[in-house]
Amino acid sequence: MITTRPGYPRWHTASAQGPRSHNADAVGAYAAAGGPGIVFALADGVGDDPTAARAARVAAAAAARTAVHKGPVEAVLAAQRAVRELGGGDAVLVVAMPAAQGGYRIAWVGDARAYAWDGGTLTKLTTDHTLAEYFRARHQPVTPRMEHVVTTSVRTAGADEIGTTETASTGLLLTSDGVHKPLAAAGMRAVLARPGTGAAELVEAALARGGSDNATALYVEPLEAGSTTVRFPVAA
Asked: Which residues lie in coiled coils (predicted)?
């Protein structure tokens, strides 16, 4: 079901399986009655099997349904509790919660990303929790394989390992690595700069660029665009 609410931004999402055997990406979005806005979550299952897909769906749903006043770190921990109740499976995750002063509070584990978008500038808000970033930050050599090895995940991360940040931007983009790795920042910016484009066009462009993974994007248009929110049922 799709509904609109005046005063909130329009948002949309797209996902493609790509050349994988399963689509292990998932999104969640939930606006509690009387709440200050919509909580958004994007999860990318670790692996290419049904348990990874289920872990991503469970993580995204649990994170999105976390009360806003509890904050985005608690949303990741709620996802962790839900995933640990499963028999197996793991995921990386990024969560964006409305901030009281506008914009979003963000928490993440792994290499799912959040970007701010103001209609012209795309700003990366998160730093990948990968082996590559760990060594890069220490000015050590990095191999291509390190880019795909995450150092935190929903199932394993300690509370002090969860990344956090904030943005005043009302325009937001959440992506799985199947989108941001093939396109990079310049490619995503070029897609979003075209009028009328968003999540679907990002996913299509990533696969056209030779993406070899599931590709998922959740795009919240800047409020300045004067649009309204579009909701869909939370991932489950």
From this structure: none
Q: Number of folded domains in the chain? A: 1
Geometric angle at alpha carbon 157, from 151 and 160, rounded to 5°: 105
Instruction: Calculate the CA dihedral of residues 44, 65, 82, 159 and round it to 10 degrees.
Output: 80
Q: Domain limits at 60?
A: 3-231
Does 236 fall in a domain?
A: no
State the Cα torsion 71-72-74-76 to the nearest 10°.
170
State whether residue 91 is helix, strand or coil. Answer: strand
Are 27 and 214 a contacting pair, CB within 8 Å?
A: no
Task: Note whether residue 32 is domain-resident.
Answer: yes
CATH number of the domain enclosing 146: 3.60.40.10
For helices 72-84 and 50-64, the axis angle rounded to 10 degrees is 140
Is 19 contained in some domain? yes
pTM of the model: 0.91
Separation CA 194–CA 189 (nearest Å): 9
Instruction: State the pLDDT at residue 215.
Output: 97
